[in-house]
Amino acid sequence: MPCLCPLFSCQWEGHLEVVVPHLRQMHRVDILHGADIVFLATDMHLPAPADWLIIHSCFGHHFLLVLRKQERHAGHPQFFATMMLIGTPTQADSFTYRLELNRNHRCLRWEATPRSILECVDSVITNGDCLVIGTSLAQHFSDNGSLAIGIAISAATEICSSEAEM
């Protein structure tokens, strides 16, 4: 498979098992560990297009958060955030992710099943199958040009067992 890092034009190709080492070594993408993390995207004022990435490691799997600022309509940049499992579509169906923005007595949540990294992140964003917020809404949640995104991953078995308890 080709390199999936949207930050660079990279000619690398390799197997799914070596995507994480490639992203870490060649593109300096950090890994955060745990089912619940907070990712701080800085410099939100950068002009579109811009991308922010983080690898989220939990439940024995790696997920790639892609936060993209781009213009869908001329002069109107938007932010798009999605979580991709570095694995197969079948594996991705075993998880749910939640992105949460909290600030100034406001809360915005997006919950979905991650997509497989084998699917194109560009098509996920183009189809709007992700958290989409305009720059004015992003400013409500930002602090000095930084956006803190709470990320939570759940395994499908956890969801089923918690629903059964209700």
UniProtKB/TrEMBL annotation:
Gene Ontology BP term (one): proteasome-mediated ubiquitin-dependent protein catabolic process
One Gene Ontology MF term: zinc ion binding
Pfam hit, one: Sina_TRAF
Record SUPFAM superfamilies: TRAF domain-like (SSF49599)
Gene3D superfamilies: Apoptosis, Tumor Necrosis Factor Receptor Associated Protein 2, Chain A, Classic Zinc Finger
EC number(s) given by UniProt: 2.3.2.27
Domain notes: The SBD domain (substrate-binding domain) mediates the interaction with substrate proteins. It is related to the TRAF family. The RING-type zinc finger domain is essential for ubiquitin ligase activity.
Pathway annotation from the record: Protein modification; protein ubiquitination
Keywords: Metal-binding, Ubl conjugation pathway, Zinc, Zinc-finger
Protein name: E3 ubiquitin-protein ligase
Functional note: E3 ubiquitin-protein ligase that mediates ubiquitination and subsequent proteasomal degradation of target proteins. E3 ubiquitin ligases accept ubiquitin from an E2 ubiquitin-conjugating enzyme in the form of a thioester and then directly transfers the ubiquitin to targeted substrates.
GO terms under cellular component: cytoplasm
Catalytic activity: S-ubiquitinyl-[E2 ubiquitin-conjugating enzyme]-L-cysteine + [acceptor protein]-L-lysine = [E2 ubiquitin-conjugating enzyme]-L-cysteine + N(6)-ubiquitinyl-[acceptor protein]-L-lysine
Similarity comment: Belongs to the SINA (Seven in absentia) family.
Domain Seven-in-absentia protein TRAF-like positions: 57-151
Enzyme class label: transferase
